Amino acid sequence: MSESELDRRHKERTRKHKEVVDAKIAKATIDKGLLLVLTGNGKGKSSSAFGMVARTLGYGRKAAIFQFIKGAKLVGERAFFDAHPDVRWEKCGEGFTWDTQDRQADIANARAGWEKAKEALADPDVHLVVLDELTYPVNYGYLSLDDIMPAIAARPPMQHVVITGRAAHERIVEAADTVSAIRDVKHAFRSGVRAQEGIDW
Amino acid sequence: MSESELDRRHKERTRKHKEVVDAKIAKATIDKGLLLVLTGNGKGKSSSAFGMVARTLGYGRKAAIFQFIKGAKLVGERAFFDAHPDVRWEKCGEGFTWDTQDRQADIANARAGWEKAKEALADPDVHLVVLDELTYPVNYGYLSLDDIMPAIAARPPMQHVVITGRAAHERIVEAADTVSAIRDVKHAFRSGVRAQEGIDW
Predict the structure, then answer these.
(1) Measured CA distances, A145 to A70, A151, A169, B52, B152 (Å)
(2) What is the layout of strands, in order, in the sheet containing B87-91?
(3) In chain B, where are the structural domains located?
(4) Hey, which end of chain A has fewer CB within 10 Å, N or C?
């Protein structure tokens, strides 16, 4: 087939496809604050949430980030966003359970963090609330979904919430508008590569 | 079981777990520039790449972003990152094929974008190169993997590259160090919610 014939067919096919896409878009008319969940054991859950923070800041809106596990170490995302005037960054943990080895301190950190997160979930000026790695203190029983789900449901109607972490609880998935499950197809760590600056932290 | 007994067992269990984790970490000693692929049809591929840009900038390093499909519209991530002195942002497309409906223009944009991306892939000062939605011009046959894969393989050894987009080609997956497949479990769009500012763009 000649290039010009390919081009002509492409134009016809994409024109028809646009009608299908436009019809779908025409049906999606609702604006609302979304509850998004990034779960699964692959790389990309927290980094995706931080990408949404960048988008939010790009529109001059405010974001609040509550980091429920990492915390002891200054990570790149915190160095970058914490300095931004439209970001509230709260450290709500001191590390993985096997690093802290202190159940009571982990519980206290998670609960103190959740109290702060509730403030953001009640503030209509906050466009995006990131509850980073919230699934872990929930799954460990340190925080109760009976507290969390009503606070999320009662938030300002245009506020977006992103929850990240492995093994998101069924109640979180059910309440969510958008859920992505990130599958670990391949990971450099298993080939002997340690966590890399700018990529993993 | 009493709280103090729970705490004691937790400490013992996490201490043992730390030995396992530390042994794994001790085996991962390599530092190298990674090729990361974020594929699958769920939400979070590009936003994850932008989160890694934030991490990179948090360490005072440089990032270069080549956006192969989106482009006509000013999106939040571009508004945010394009203004940053350590970011090179290149628009390498004018929209989805069904929006442009112009095969020759799409091919020309993709090829011009790839020529610019090759410059970044040869520059050791660039810590992270994002080839956002590169999978589409590859799968459409507009760009050749015979050009792309050697340029990626020959890049500076500590430079990281992130490729995003659905249906990543087998050659890209094979060459990658880390691959995440993002599954669309649930998406607000199918419930009639249109793309939301700060979340989807």
Answers:
(1) 21, 10, 9, 30, 45
(2) A87-91, A62-67, A126-132, A160-164, A35-39, A178-186, B178-186, B35-39, B160-164, B126-132, B62-67, B87-91
(3) 1-30, 32-191
(4) N
Q: Cβ contact (<8 Å) for A198 and B128?
A: yes
CATH code, residues B32-191? 3.40.50.300
CA separation for the pair A49, A29 (Å, rounded): 24
Residues of A in contact with B11 (CB under 8 A): 101-103
ipTM of the complex: 0.94
Residues 70-99 of A with CB under 8 A from B: 75-81, 96-99
So what's the architecture of A31-191 in CATH?
3-Layer(aba) Sandwich (3.40)
Tens of each residue's pLDDT in chain B, 201 residues: 899 999 999 999 999 999 999 999 999 999 999 999 999 999 999 999 999 999 999 999 999 999 999 866 778 999 999 999 999 999 999 999 999 999 999 999 999 999 999 999 999 999 999 999 999 999 999 999 999 999 999 999 999 999 999 999 999 999 999 999 999 999 999 999 999 988 988
Which candidate in B36, B37, B52 is best for mutational testing of the A interface (most A CBs within 10 A)?
B52
* A21 contacts in chain B (CB < 8 Å): 96, 98
Phi, psi of A65 (to 5 degrees): -125, 125
- Of A183, A118, A170, the residue nearest A148 (C-alpha): A118
